[in-house]
Write a structure and sequence with these properties.
By secondary structure, the chain is α+β, with helices and mostly antiparallel strands. It has a domain of about 120 residues: Roll (Bacterial Protein-export protein SecB). Helices cover about 35% and strands about 35% of the residues. It contains four helices and four strands, in the order ααββββαα. It has a four-stranded antiparallel sheet with strand order 1-4-3-2, with helices on one face. β3 and β4 form a beta hairpin. α3 packs across α4. The N terminus is likely disordered.
């Protein structure tokens, strides 16, 4: 029969490797903020008398800027233009950012986190900023539909692989 000391020793977890080094993977948002916001209402006050419903053109882009080994700024740019035959009703340009901390994560998974998961986490806040900006310009708040950032990320990876495969298959130009 084991004595009490043996039982306690058996229940203790194995000490961390590397003299207590933090080797567990982690990723998350440190902070988020509006980096740049521009709201234009170029045809006020006439625009408020227009009868025609404006057509909405929504564009977005994702960028990443490495700040340090473990911190990257992810920027979600959202550009909205509302146009009618009479002119522009409003324009909103937003650069909404998050500082993302990533440690001990393989490069391919870090890339996916920065360009798919982080924008998904930032999007609801950017969406609220756009809705408020449009409302503050005197229009009904614009509620942008949810965006499948993961699906778009996978789509872009597949397109890149197809381009690389096509480039590898094409014969080298002759001199």
């Amino acid at each position: 029969m084991a004595d009490e000391g043996d039982i306690l020793t058996d229940l203790n977890p194995t000490p961390p490797q590397g003299n207590g080094a933090d080797t567990l993977p982690s990723a998350g948002i440190i902070t988020q903020y509006v980096k740049d916001l521009s709201v234009e209402n170029p045809n006020a006050p006439e625009v408020f008398q227009w009868k025609e419903q404006p057509q909405i053109d929504l564009q977005f882009n994702i960028g990443a800027n490495k700040i340090s080994d473990e911190v990257t700024e992810v920027e979600l740019k959202v550009n909205v233009t509302a146009k009618s035959s009479q002119g522009n009703a409003y324009l909103v340009e937003l650069a909404y950012c998050g500082l993302i901390g990533i440690r001990n994560v393989p490069e391919d998974q870090a890339h996916a986190f920065l360009f798919a998961e982080a924008p998904r986490l930032l999007f609801p806040f950017a969406r609220a900023v756009v809705a408020d900006a449009v409302r503050d310009a005197g229009f009904q708040p614009l509620m942008i539909d949810p965006i499948d950032f993961n699906g778009l990320y996978i789509q872009q990876l597949q397109a890149k692989r197809e381009q690389e495969a096509a480039a590898a298959e094409s014969p080298a130009s002759e001199a």
